[in-house]
Amino acid sequence: MARKFGNQLLALFGSFAAAAWKANRDKRAALEDNYRREVRKATAQHAEEQSEYDAYVTSLPKLKGNGRFDQEVDTTYGDMFALDAYSTYLELMHEPGQHFTVVLEYQVGEAEGSVRVDGGQATLGHIPFEDEEYLVEFLEELSGDVACDAKLTKLLHGGYDLYLDILRPPQI
């Protein structure tokens, strides 16, 4: 009798768990559909501004990559809203591991973090001071901004990993 009751109780909990999982899945699907709808609406609303920014980015010289995405970016002082927005957009609108284009800007006179990484007109982070010398010299010679490919990963414990695809020594 006790075993029968235990089995019935287990079946009841299993039903609750399955119902909760389905409700969560359906809620997530609805939120994702809403997000996609809002992205399409915002894209249409800001099409002219985005077109100008895209033209600017594509007009920049683009650094050649090595395919390894091994140049780390310090996202500590990056715009967390922009990082979160990029992460969500890439997760929902593109395939996993998708790369995107960022702009590297040399900031003259900065003691540390003098190579800023921008994406979508927001600061995503800086090249760590100990890694930036090869880029600083290149950007000083070029006397302008450059574009390169980047990959962004949202970490489970919070925060982001952002890596750039840059051939060393840098080449255009």
Number of helical stretches of at least 4 residues: 4
Question: Beta-strand level of the residues, as a percent range?
Answer: 15-25%
Distance between the termini: 77 Å
Main sheet summary:
6 strands, antiparallel
Number of strands: 6
Mean pLDDT: 79
Helix and strand composition category: alpha+beta
The topology string of helices and strands comes to HHEHEEEHEE
Shape: elongated
Major β-sheet strand ordering = 1-6-5-2-3-4
Low-confidence stretches are none
Share of helical residues: 40-55%
- The total tally of domains equals 2
The whole-angstrom Rg is 22 Å
Care to describe what's here?
The chain contains four helices and six strands. The protein is an alpha+beta fold and 172 residues long. It folds into two domains: 1-45; 62-165. A six-stranded antiparallel sheet has the order 1-6-5-2-3-4.
Provide the fold topology:
Blueprint: H1 2-45, H2 47-59, E1 71-73, H3 80-93, E2 100-106, E3 115-119, E4 122-126, H4 133-142, E5 146-154, E6 160-165
Antiparallel strand pairs: 1-6, 2-3, 2-5, 3-4, 5-6
Entry summary:
With about 170 residues, the protein is of the alpha+beta class.
Q: What labels would you give this structure?
A:
single chain, 172 residues, 2 domains, 4 helices, 20% strand, elongated
